[in-house]
Specification:
Elements: H1 9-13, H2 16-36, H3 42-49, H4 55-65, H5 68-80, H6 93-129, E1 134-139, E2 142-148, H7 149-174, E3 176-177, H8 191-201, E4 204-205, H9 216-242, E5 250-251, H10 271-292, H11 303-331, E6 334-335, H12 337-344, H13 353-362, H14 367-384, H15 388-393, H16 396-399, H17 404-409, H18 413-416, H19 420-427
Parallel strand pairs: 3-4
Antiparallel strand pairs: 1-2, 5-6
Helix pairs in contact: 2-3, 2-6, 2-8, 4-5, 6-7, 6-11, 7-9, 7-19, 9-10, 9-11, 10-11, 13-14
């Protein structure tokens, strides 16, 4: 296969069994804290530790009671008998739910960070390989000036580093729990219990909470995912542009036996890059939904819950997939330096106009006069398909200020990329 999603671990974080396992992990950690204080007998704690998530039984109970936490607690009661009275002491559903979700999000963030690191490594390799590969830079889709393909990729590499830092910060923001009770006032659980349990789980503590961990944290997390997705879309969009027939400077991987169209055998479409661009839109939509979840009624309502059941699994799975797909494209990108060199000449040398302009101003010609002079010849070059150098060399207004060697030197692409190595050093790509 030309591409395949090889990271099922992300999906497993969000299975129903994994969710209830995380809930049980929190419940057991609370029991352990109480046992250290003598509130739960050692033998009862041992039995609590031995309980298991019976997902089929939990779902069966849930179908009857219509409450997920009660379904879990009922299943535990069936396993523990009288010792079940030691489970869920002083807690509300969201104490367990939000703290367990933090565990899931932390694990998901670790996978995303690893995926972002893999992409960044692939981008570094591609950038170094093509550090000196000349190509034309485009602004507004129009040929601008010479650059190198490696410099283009270096932009992506540095941006990938910023996304890596954003994901790390988002992981820190989301990795907090709370056990402060039904309205956040610790009426039935001591703050020390919360601090101890969260520390044992490897989480921070929400300093002041209501019934929930505050949702600006989740908004920050999902927004970081959306920004990372937008950067992947940026790479994919460039690949799509470069793969157009009129450009054809780079193409996404295309395997032996792969087909691009059911009707036209010649087609080699950038469908992977297009897929990335489409899925990035979903990440941005989910970020908006996460921001909408920040404002809830009083100490909380439940309007955020239904949204998060979709956007948290979907956003983490989507970004994990798109990171994997983008890395695949970057590692297998079919770059054509020969075509890039051909395209450099398409503008009849117009891409060197700024250097001619500056040389004329250095000779003492007023800038606007020099601009209009070069622009007039550049428009002729386009229209008549004649080299700009030829037109300039035939104009006394130019040749009286620039000798043949000086004028020809303006059309040397190496001059435009002479500082690429310095940029690579700043980017940490040396």
């Amino acid at each position: 296969m030309i591409e395949r999603y090889t990271r099922p671990a992300m999906g497993s974080i969000w299975s129903e069994a994994a969710k209830y396992q995380a809930w049980l992990r929190v419940e057991v950690a609370v029991c352990e804290a109480y046992a250290r204080r003598g509130r739960i007998p050692a033998e009862a704690l041992a039995r609590i530790r031995d309980t298991r998530v019976d997902i089929d039984r939990i779902l069966a109970i849930q179908g009857r009671v219509k409450h997920e936490m009660i379904a879990l607690l009922t299943s535990l009661e069936e396993q523990l008998g009288p010792d079940s009275r030691f489970v869920h002491i002083g807690l509300t559903t969201n104490d367990v739910w939000d703290t367990a979700t933090a565990l899931q999000l932390r694990d998901a963030a670790d996978l995303l960070i690893a995926g972002q690191e893999r992409l960044r490594t692939a981008l570094a390799t591609l950038a170094r390989r093509h550090r000196d590969t000349l190509t034309v830079a485009r602004t507004h889709g129009v040929h601008a000036e010479p650059t190198t393909f490696g410099l283009k990729v270096a932009v992506w590499y540095v941006e990938a580093g910023r996304n890596l830092e954003r994901l790390r910060r988002a992981r820190e923001a989301i990795a907090v729990g709370k056990l402060s009770g039904a309205v956040g006032n610790f009426a039935h659980v001591e703050p020390e219990i919360e601090e101890e349990v969260c520390r044992d789980l490897g989480l921070g503590v929400e300093p002041v909470s209501t019934q929930i961990v505050q949702r600006d944290r989740h908004a920050e997390f999902v927004s970081a995912l959306a920004i990372a997705g937008a950067s992947l879309e940026k790479i994919a969009l460039e690949v799509r542009g470069l793969q157009r027939t009129e450009v054809l400077e780079a193409q996404e991987p295309f395997g032996e036996g792969q087909k691009g169209s059911s009707a036209m055998p010649h087609k080699r479409n950038p469908e992977l890059a297009e897929r990335i661009c489409g899925l990035a839109r979903l990440l941005r939509t989910n970020a908006l939904a996460a921001v909408e979840n920040v404002a809830l009624w009083h100490e909380r309502d439940i309007s955020h819950s239904s949204v998060e059941r979709v956007i948290l699994p979907d956003s983490t799975i989507l970004l994990d997939y798109v990171l994997d797909l983008t890395t695949f494209i970057v590692e297998g990108l079919d770059v054509d330096p020969t075509r890039m060199a051909e395209n450099l000449d398409l503008s009849q040398g117009n891409i060197y106009s700024q250097r001619v302009l500056l040389k004329l101003t250095e000779s003492g010609l007023a800038r606007q006069v020099a601009y209009e002079l070069v622009q007039r010849h550049a428009m002729r070059a386009w229209k008549e398909r004649r080299p700009l150098l030829e037109l300039l060399a035939a104009d006394p207004a130019v040749t009286e200020r620039l000798g043949p060697a000086d004028l020809k030197a303006c059309f040397d692409p190496a001059w435009y990329v002479r500082n690429v190595e310095a940029v690579f050093r700043r980017a940490g790509l040396q």
